[in-house]
Amino acid sequence: MIDLQVRGENGTIEARAKHGVVWGHELAGLDQSVFPMLGHLLPYADTVFNHRQVATAREFLSRLIVRSTSLRRL
Prior knowledge:
Blueprint: E1 5-7, E2 13-16, H1 25-28, H2 54-73
Antiparallel strand pairs: 1-2
């Protein structure tokens, strides 16, 4: 399970995913050329995005959700 957290500058948790994200083949097999930020995630390590990267990471997550939903319909 991957827990998602947004932390402020002082380290306080500003937001978090309620149930986390399951590490599955969708995340493990991401094409790094299509999802350059998310394609480097590891199931056993922390990943930190700085405040300038958050908007890009959010865009990639949105695209990933749309892609995952589309694949489930097939």
